[in-house]
């Protein structure tokens, strides 16, 4: 069994001790990072290669944090001052997907990161991928 096939099997069994430990450590690690950051390598190299990623210059991967779940209507103390049919505050669903909202958010954050001269700030992340 090759390395990519082994990785695929490990990802299928998410309740195994190896995966539970790995996901717990990565979850803590991602929380320490900023909401938008450049990843040194893909989390799942096998899946990334199936989707067209190659480990060569010019391919970059960014990871962005997005809050999941429904949208809450921003009203003070839940008072909407509308007809009862429009009183919903909590169980609203956003019209766009989480992927689209993460894309829009990443564009906004990347514009803020750019310096006034237009050159991006250099990342201090010198961590390399194993393998």
From TrEMBL:
Q: Record's family?
A: Belongs to the eukaryotic ribosomal protein eL15 family.
**Organism of provenance:** Mus spicilegus (Mound-building mouse)
Question: What is the protein name stated in its UniProt record?
Answer: Ribosomal protein L15
Q: What role is this protein assigned? A: Component of the large ribosomal subunit. The ribosome is a large ribonucleoprotein complex responsible for the synthesis of proteins in the cell.
Molecular function as annotated in GO: RNA binding; structural constituent of ribosome
Subunit: Component of the large ribosomal subunit. Interacts with IFIT1 (via TPR repeats 1-4).
Q: Name one GO biological process term.
A: cytoplasmic translation
- Looking at the UniProt record for this protein, which Gene Ontology cellular component terms does it annotate, in alphabetical order? cytosolic large ribosomal subunit
Q: Decide whether keyword Nucleus is in the record.
A: no
Q: What SMART domains does the record point to?
A: Ribosomal_L15e (SM01384)
Keywords, ordered alphabetically: Ribonucleoprotein, Ribosomal protein
In the UniProt record, does the keyword Ribonucleoprotein occur?
yes
